[in-house]
Amino acid sequence: MRNPPDIDSLVEGVLASDRARLARAITLVESRAPKHAPYAQELMQRILPHAGGAMRVGLTGVPGAGKSTFIEAMGMYLCKQDKKVAVLAVDPSSSVTGGSILGDKTRMEDLSREPNAFIRPSPSGNSLGGVAARTREALLLCEAAGYDVILVETVGVGQSETAVRTMTDFFLLLQIAGAGDELQGIKKGVIELADAIVVNKADGDNVIRARQARVEYERVFHFLHPFTPGWKPKALTCSALEHEGVDQVWDLIMRFRREMKASGIFDERRCEQNVDWFQSLLQQAVMQRFTTENKALIEKMESAVGLGKMPVSVALSDLLG
Predict the structure, then answer these.
(1) Which of 29, 42, 78, 94 is geometrically suited to a Cys-Cys bond with 137, CB 3.0 to 4.6 A?
(2) Could you tell me if 41 and 166 lie in one domain?
């Protein structure tokens, strides 16, 4: 963005569900340029009253579990139910060049052509937790644009792929059978965060193995404390490729929404997520200001530590002192 953004036009476009201007609005809030920050803040302030109405679904899974195929199958199913679907897909950034392929639209050809769908791939950058730095802002913009369901796909699964849990209502873990992960999954912290596990690729010769894996995950849930109070996590099977079982997954998500709304947990979690978001941005702002104001001293300490002239703990203590 070379010229100052037209906030009035962006707000008007977002509220009118103009996909081109929605994409430009997300680009603005994702910008790291300091000059764009005031415009991004004004944009978020103005669209905030219109956000909050969507069902936010986080999705992660092991490599090869078919996340993109599942999201496309789910998205097409929901669009046929007259729902508007936004997909926020996060692509891993190269640790060498910092670049990303951003190829999710090519992997979801049918959904990308659907008028009621919006797909936004974003680079993960240096962010941990499996999501991009401004995924929360993009999510709110999509809600203000009138999308009924927001699907947030992480870059993968692991101990750190948990930030999506703090910004979504329902957290779904996609697995596959025969990969040796059935019982190993109990060792992964991510399974403790899941509201449901879906064993994908339950088709062809893999149907029996998928059903066996579902039973194993159901047993695992008996030994874990559910992350969502009052909700017993479920394990299901589906074939995203053949579009089988996707409707059952959505029915489960809607059941979760009804029960959690009735108990008050749903709205309570949304409030907690806003506080978590504030604390996350506060830590980033404090860290950025501290490193900027103490750049010369930090470089001096780094040199001393690198040359082995000062223990790391002593350097850190002196710096904070």
Answers:
(1) 29
(2) no
- pLDDT value for 90: 74
Mean pLDDT for each consecutive 10-residue tract of the chain (321 residues)?
84 96 94 91 96 95 88 97 93 43 64 94 53 81 97 69 84 82 54 93 93 91 89 96 96 98 96 91 88 92 93 91 82
In-domain check, residue 268? no
Distance (Å, rounded) from C-alpha 266 to C-alpha 167? 12
* Same domain as 99, residue 8: no
Distance CA 161, CA 189 (A): 9
Contact present, 226 and 263 (Cβ < 8 Å): no
Strand runs labelled E in 47-169? 55-61, 85-91, 117-123, 149-153
| Residue 180 confidence (pLDDT) | 54
Question: Do 66 and 186 fall within a single domain?
Answer: yes
229 and 310 share one domain? no
Distances (CA, A) of 188 to 158, 162, 182, 191, 254: 7, 11, 11, 6, 26
Q: Is 59 in a helix, a strand, or coil?
A: strand
Query: Do residue 108 and residue 241 come from a single domain?
Result: yes
pLDDT of residue 126: 43
Residue type, 279: Q
**pLDDT score recorded for residue 248:** 98
Domain that holds residue 180: 53-263
